[in-house]
Amino acid sequence: MVLQLLSELKELIIRFYRKVVIMSDLSSIEPIHIEGVKDYHMHCDYSFDASGTIEEYCESALRRNLAEICFTTHYDNNPNSDGRDRFIRIDGELQPTSIDRLGRYVDDVHAAAEKYYVKGISVKLGVEFGWYRGCEEEALKLKEKYNFDYMLCGIHEIDNISFCSKSDFEKCFADLSLEAMLKKYFMQVKEASDIKLFDTIAHFCYYYKYAKKYYGDAIEKAYEPYLDSVFTTLVKNGTELEINTSGIRHGIERYYPNIDIINKAKKAGVKIIHLGSDAHHPTQVGYEFEVAASMVPDTITGCEE
């Protein structure tokens, strides 16, 4: 009993620390109530690396009083990668990624949208398309076939090697100076925006997940020389950024992107109108939104800029 109480107290202290650290940078932003918030980044078990059914995610969202959710299953099909991510799970089995195979996922999300509308939650159809050079034709075909409500662009690789995988990040960074890595990453962001097929760049600056471990403290502000050019491209093309809270879950105590970048992006005119938990399990829906919601007024249904 005592151990359980100590464990619960420790968790409360950790959560309070997170809020103090994050909110200390938000003096100009008024907090808003959590009820009515939308989660626009989640992966059900159609994603190769996620678990939990669509209905389980919807039920989790209801328990958290979310007003709207958007499923964004992974669609990874880079022909130049090692192929480990190029799968969709259907009926519990991993099958090679293809546009046609995604149809089952689309049908199930549409069915959930009908079922849960009467329960008071809006369910939207989205996808997280894994970016690679030359993907324009496939991304366009996918978008035209399924008419997604929301299309995320996930940049997970540099030179076709994953930088966000525990088993691959060292291989990805091995031949790259910090400057070379950042230049390649931000160039991909601009290229992805320029094809004008994606609503949002997912987890902007996701490289930080393992780059801090590899490059050390030099990574902290190394993005600054690249932001103006990237933001100009995003604004020109109407490409948005999200506030992705999964960095807290990853143990790095920050969002993707961090608060400094969020503030700079807003000042540059980049739209940031969605929160994303990047949930890969139903228990992660709406993760750490209590604080993050204060940064995005449009996450409340009906709010306007």
Residue share in β-strands: 15-25%
What kind of sheet is the major sheet? 7 strands, parallel
CATH architecture call = Alpha-Beta Barrel
Tell me the domain tally.
Answer: 1
List low-confidence stretches.
Answer: 12-35, 299-305
Outline type: globular
Can you tell me about this structure?
The protein has a single domain, classed as Metal-dependent hydrolases (TIM Barrel), CATH 3.20.20. The chain contains eleven helices and eleven strands. A hairpin with a 2-residue loop joins strand 7 and strand 8. The relative contact order is 0.15.
How is the secondary structure organized here?
Layout lengths: L1 H22 L14 E2 L14 H10 L4 E8 L11 E4 L2 E4 L6 H15 L4 E9 L5 H11 L3 E5 L2 E2 L2 E2 L6 H5 L4 H17 L5 E2 L6 H8 L8 H14 L2 E5 L1 H4 L9 H10 L3 E5 L12 H4 L13
Parallel strand pairs: 1-2, 2-5, 5-6, 6-9, 9-10, 10-11
Antiparallel strand pairs: 3-4, 7-8
Helix pairs in contact: 6-8, 8-10
